[in-house]
Amino acid sequence: MVWKKTVTGGALRGSIAGICGVGFLLFGYDQGVLGAVIGLPSFRDEFDNPDAILEGIIASFYDLGCFFGALLAFVTADRWGRKGSVAWGSWIMVVGTILQTTATEKIQMTISRVLTGIGNGVNTVNIPIWQAESFKSQNRGAMLVIQSALIALGHPLSTFMGLASQQADPSSFAWRWPIAFQGFFLIIILIVLPFLPESPRWLVQHDRVEEATVVFAALESKHATVNDPKIIRERDLVMASVQRERELGEASWSEVFTEGPNRNISRVLLGAGPYMFNQWSGINSLAYFLPITFERNIGLSTQLSLIISGVLGVQYFLVSWLPYFFIERAGRRTVMILSAAGCSFCMVMIVIMLEVDTLVSQWVFVAMCFLFFDIFSWGILPVSWMYASEIMPLRTRNKGVALGVSSHWLSNFAIVFFTPDAIENLGPRLYIIWAVFNASFVPITYFFYPETARRSLEDMDDIFLNERFGVTKCRKPGPRKLDTDSDSELEKEKMPSAMQQEAAY
Fold first, then answer.
1. pLDDT tens-digit profile, the chain (505 residues)
2. Is 305 exposed, middle or buried (0-12, 13-18, 19+ CB in 10 A)?
3. Inter-residue contact 173 to 165 (CB < 8 Å)
4. Confidence (pTM)
C-alpha cells in the first residue's frame, strides 16, 4: 500500500494514533453490539426465537474467529506489513459485517460472526504493534491507557446504538442498523490508511532502510530530514536491534515448552495466567450479555436494561484511565491481588442480592455490577495484557505471549458460549463460580508471581535464573532508576510482542 506523504510531525503521529483509536473503538463496539440487540423482539423473530444454547453459539463464535484471526496474523504479519495487515483485516470485517447485516438464517449469522472475528483478530494484533513501533518510549504508557479506555468506550456506544434503534422495533432495522454501524469505523480506517506510513521498524526488517529513514524523519517533525543526526541515530539503533534479532533467531516451539536454564515453560505458564484471570473473573459473562442479564435476573424491561448497561459502560470507560496514575508505583502484584479480592466480593454480594430477591436487593445487584467493572478495570484488566510480555525472554517472547493470548481467546469463547444457558439454568450459582475463581487468584498471585514493575527484561531474566519454580521472593517493585542502556531500551520499546497490547478486554 503506497504512502502518500501529506502530513508530518505531530499531525502524522496524531493521525496514526487516531486511526489506531478507531480500531480499538471498533473492537469494544463489536464486543457489545450483539448483547445490545439479541433481546430485541425483531431479532428473536428473525431467527425463530433462539434458545440459550444458540445464543451462546452466535455470540461465542465471534471469539473463535478472533482466535483464528490472531493466529493468521502471526503467520502473515511479516509478509503483509503492519499497515497492510490492518487493511486486509478491515476488508475481511467489511465482508463479515455485510453478511451479518443481511442475515436471515441462523447459519449465515453464525458464519458471518466468525468471519468478522477473523478480521478483528488480525487487526487487534497488528494495530497495537504498528502504534508501538511508530511512537517514542515516553508515549507508550499513555497509549496503553488510551487503548484500554477506547475499547471500554466501544461497549456503551453499541448499547446506546441498540437503545436508539430499538424505537424501530418490530422492524428488523432495529437490530440490523447497530450491526451495520461497524462499517462506519471500517470506512474511516480504509480511507485514511493510504495517507499513513508503514512501521519504520518493519521496513528496516525487510531491508527497506531508505524508506524507513524517511518515515523516521516524517514522524519526528516537519523540519526533520533524513540527514539529521537524531534521525540517523534512531535508524541505526533499530538496525542494530534487527541485526541482533537475526543473530538470535526465532526459538522453536519445542524450546518454548522446555524448562531449561531460562525456565521457559514456567514463564509461559505464569504469562498465560493473567490472560486467563481476565476471562475467568466473569467479566465477559457480564459484558457480552449485560442487558439480558438485567432482564432475566431481576426482570427489568429491555429498554431500562439497555439504559443501565449504557450508563455502566460510560462509567467503565471513565474509570479505566485511573491505573495510569498508580500501576507503576503500586506494582502489578498489588493491583492484581486487590482487584481480584474486590471482584470476588462483588460476586458474593451479587449472589446474596439475587437470593434475597427484593426491590432493594435488585438495585444493590445493579450497583454491584457497576462496582465489579470498576474494580476489574483497576487491576486485572491492565495487568493481564502487560504481564506476559514483561517476563518472557527475548528469544521466546513472541511465541510465549502468543500462547497466553490464545488461552485468552479460547477462554473467552468458552465463557461466552455457556453464559446464556448458565443464566437460565444456574441462576445465582453462576456468580458463585466467578467469586471462587476471583478469590483463588489472590493466593496464586501472591505466592507465584514475581513483581515486574520498574524492572527491565534483563532484570526479569536474572530473577528467573535465581528462583526455581515455586514461591517467588520478588514481591516489590524495582528501584526507581533511569535506564541508560540503549540496546536494552530498544528491545523493550521498539520490539513489542505481536500480542503484547492487543486489547481486551
1. 556 566 777 788 888 888 988 998 998 898 888 888 888 889 999 998 888 888 888 888 998 998 898 888 877 767 788 888 899 999 999 999 999 999 999 999 999 999 999 999 888 878 877 877 777 655 555 666 677 788 888 888 988 888 888 888 788 999 999 999 999 999 999 999 988 998 888 888 888 888 888 888 888 877 777 788 888 888 888 888 778 767 767 677 788 888 877 788 888 899 889 989 999 999 988 887 888 888 888 888 888 888 898 899 899 989 988 887 888 888 899 999 999 999 999 999 999 999 998 889 999 999 999 999 999 999 998 888 778 878 887 677 767 777 877 888 889 889 988 888 888 888 889 999 999 999 999 999 999 999 988 887 678 888 887 877 678 888 888 886 544 444 444 444 444 443 344 333 4
2. buried
3. yes
4. 0.78
Per the document, the length of the chain is 505
**Burial 220-240, CB ≥16 within 10 A → b, else e:** bbeebeeebeebeebbeebbe
Distance CA 223, CA 263 (A): 48
- Nearest CA to 157 among 40, 283, 30, 39? 30
Nearest partner of 174 among 183, 182, 184, 163, judged by Cα: 163
Longest dimension (CA), the chain: 73
